Amino acid sequence: MNVVWIFVLCLLCFGVGSDGLSGNGTSRPAVVNVGGIFTFDSTIGRVAKIAIQEAVKDVNSNSSLLRGTKLVVKLQNSNCSGFLGMIGALKFMETDVVAVIGPQSSVVAHTISLVANELQVPFLSFAATDPTLSSLQFPYFLRTTQSDLYQMTATAEIVEYYGWKEVIAIFVDDDYGRNGVSALDDALAARRCRISYKAGISPGAAVTRGDVMDVLVKVALMESRIIVLHAYPTLGFMVFSVAHYLGMMGDGYVWISTDWLTSVLDSSSPLPQDKMDIMQGVLVLRQHTPESENKRAFSSRWNKLTGGSLGLNSYALHAYDTVWLVAHALDSFFNQGGTISFSNDTKLQSVEGSNLHLEAMSIFDGGPLLLKNLLQSDFIGLTGPFKFNPDKSLVLPAYDIINVIGTGFRRVGYWSNYSGLSVSPPESLYSRSPNRSSTNQKLYSVVWPGNNVQKPRGWVFPNNGKQLRIGVPIRVSYREFVSQIPGTNNFKGFCIDVFTAAVNLLPYAVPHQFVPFGNGHENPSYTEMVKLITTGNFDGVVGDIAIVTNRTRAVDFTQPYAASGLVVVAPFKKLNSGGWAFLRPFSGQMWGVITIFFLFVGIVVWILEHRTNDEFRGPPKQQLITILWFSLSTLFFAHRENTVSTLGRMVLIIWLFVVLIINSSYTASLTSIFTVQQLYSPIKGLESLKETDEPIGFQVGSFAERYLEEIGIPKSRLVALGSPEQYATALQRGPGKGGVAAVVDERPYVELFLSNQCKFRIVGQEFTKSGWGFAFPRDSPLAVDLSTAILTLSENGDLQRIHDKWLSRSACSLENAELESDRLHLRSFSGLFLICGIACFIALLIYFLQIMHKYRQAAKAEAISDGPTGSRSKRLQTLLSLIDEKADKSSRDSKRRKVDRSVSDENMENDLGRDSRRREPQVSSQNEVH
């Protein structure tokens, strides 16, 4: 009985091992079948076939991987045909393959990925680089090489590094070519560059040299000279051959090829000299694989296998690693208990009975688990770390940048998605922080087509006989800037001369014609004119075009050739011609504070000096006069009273210092008022305009209207003015008489307006900073070259000479006004003379009143002594004697003299009294004697 059971178990084990299947068991199968589908006789296919076969040998010889299970890869040739590739994939679906290595072509991959989704069989392509294959639409498609998304990003960064803006894409017009160029377009747009022309070529084998020539002739008529070639090797070499024949591989051109060319250069080097001659100076990308011991060992082994007849390229390395990826994933699959089993697809039962035998295809039950293990694989292969990102792309994408020179090529740098362009291998930069700054992007020097070491400009003016349509505004005011010559489409003026001079400095001809814009009755809208560039009506706009934000969003401007910005123009009046100008150095508040402090300091000094200083003592009236006199005389440092107290002296010293500063400030300000022309306007600038509700003028067609509305000024306050004459009339009338309070316009117009209008001035600061430039379509290289030419005009003085030719005016110069203001006139001092005269008159009036009072007293005294017979001449003589009488001392001294006289009289009387009393005893004694 035991023998029977042993026999049954042996049969079961033998059956599983012979079929390579494990129905419901958990043991590893003896054989695992994997398919391989690609083009054997292609550049990539030849090396991939050898690499896959060597990888299978290495996997099966590795005892630690797929323990006891043999990996078998069944190869099938697709012959670069999408149809044959699909047939081959369907044949694999009829067998027990658990995965397929391939396809090589992106076109085939698009077709058979739908089959893979249905039957849950992973496809691992080492050569299909179409970026769209990474989409969620193809979950069972895995790319084991780099996507063209990164290759096109590298190309875009090269274009940006050299400062080019437009490229031409020549591509094979299938899924591989179209989707690759679409990725390039997106990468360029992210860097403000663009593809100016896309030239697709049929992918069929029937493409002739004439077809390619027709395409390249059109390319040669374009202005861009940066050409990106994304094709297959056969078509690519045909394009280079025709381009060399047409002279498009010479000086001025730049050719950037995708990695199809390096796959040929690496595997077929050295190429025949005739092929190398037609590719001189081409830049080529190659998938970067870091140097390692395993890679060097495999390269040495490769040379022995091929005898040196077939080189090792990056696609062969990726094909080799793909086999190891399948082996690692299967090993994990078996370790997790996965079994290789298939089930019928119920969706295919409805087509039973047809000759296609679709019912033979079955679903791989372990497909989801195997796909999961494939995506989670992580090992070091010949191409470096082999691991997938969440988006199913390989980690650390990088490319070598190759320059074809002479009989070979040399590497000029690297590109990696981690650090951009560099001259160091990407793996040496992964340990550092990523630095994508422009200063950190570097490449070695390149030898360009035509054996030129100077970086090509990247574009030329297209030689297609087409003239540029340059829009020019028809101005009705300020025609010095732009004006149309009557009866022609020619223009003249400052802006036209600058444009013509700049174009003459360019190293190439720019055929153009001026196209008038406007109705000739009012200045046109410059914003609308600029918008016509985006619609293709104009190839550029020349004129007094202000560079403002909303316009720069639509077009590119050249370097500004004239400074501009909005300013406020308003009427003014002169302030230094009045007779009371001497009061203007200080405000009314300042005058009041100065007066109060003069009195305050005088009172403080009197308080501190009153007890110790006789000069600050006396009757109240006298002391009041002393206080006033002392405080006011310090203004001129002419005080006579001396201070004796320490506190008084301290206060006086500080006060005299204050008076010194006040005097100096007053003198300086008064000097400025009398010698420098002082202008006054009630409007101080834009802010004061916003606070009022008065009308504001602006020039028709100017961006000033939109600007004023954006800062909150109602449109009802804005008045459109069309000429300098209207400016002057509206400003002279003012808001009260139907005019405007001020005009807001660009500085160049205002300067020209003020050159012959002396009644107005710019008030406040310039409140926008901009300039005038010429407008061209976005990323136009002509805008860049003209900017350089404008800088040259500025540096050599030609720009100033053009300005002086059209805009220099001397009708209303400020120099005469300044010279006139330096001369002082009587009216400037009339107030001072008036005050002084009034003071003199009042003093004389008081004096004569005092004299007349004394005269009346003297006349009464004479009348009493002489009687009524006094003659008129005697009264006149008395009056004259009073006027001529000399007062020896001041009134204070006379009062003191009177006091002293009264005191002396009293003393004399006392002395007489004492003498009389002394004499009386003597008399009596004498009488007694007698």
From TrEMBL:
Membrane topology: Multi-pass membrane protein
Cystine bridges: C758-C812
InterPro entries: ANF_lig-bd_rcpt (IPR001828), GABAb_receptor_plant_PBP1 (IPR044440), Glu/Gly-bd (IPR019594), Ionotropic_Glu_rcpt (IPR015683), Iontro_rcpt_C (IPR001320), Iontropic_Glu_rcpt_pln (IPR017103), Peripla_BP_I (IPR028082)
Record localization: Membrane
Gene Ontology biological process terms, A to Z: cellular response to oxygen-containing compound; response to wounding; signal transduction
A GO cellular component annotation in the UniProt record: membrane
Disordered: annotated span: 882-930
A Pfam family of this chain: Lig_chan-Glu_bd
Chief place of localization: membrane
Keyword Phosphoprotein: no
Region forming the signal peptide: 1-18
Membrane spanning residue stretches: 590-608, 650-674, 829-849
SMART domains cross-referenced by the UniProt entry: PBPe
GO molecular function, one term: ligand-gated monoatomic ion channel activity
Record keywords, A-Z: Disulfide bond, Glycoprotein, Ion channel, Ion transport, Ligand-gated ion channel, Membrane, Receptor, Signal, Transmembrane, Transmembrane helix, Transport
UniProt biased composition (Basic and acidic residues): 883-893, 911-921
Domain Ionotropic glutamate receptor C-terminal stretches: 469-809
Function: Glutamate-gated receptor that probably acts as non-selective cation channel.
Similarity-based family: Belongs to the glutamate-gated ion channel (TC 1.A.10.1) family.
Protein name (Swiss-Prot/TrEMBL): Glutamate receptor
Native species: Nicotiana attenuata (Coyote tobacco)
Lineage, broadest ranks: Eukaryota, Viridiplantae, Streptophyta, Embryophyta, Tracheophyta
Gene, per the UniProt record: GLR3.3
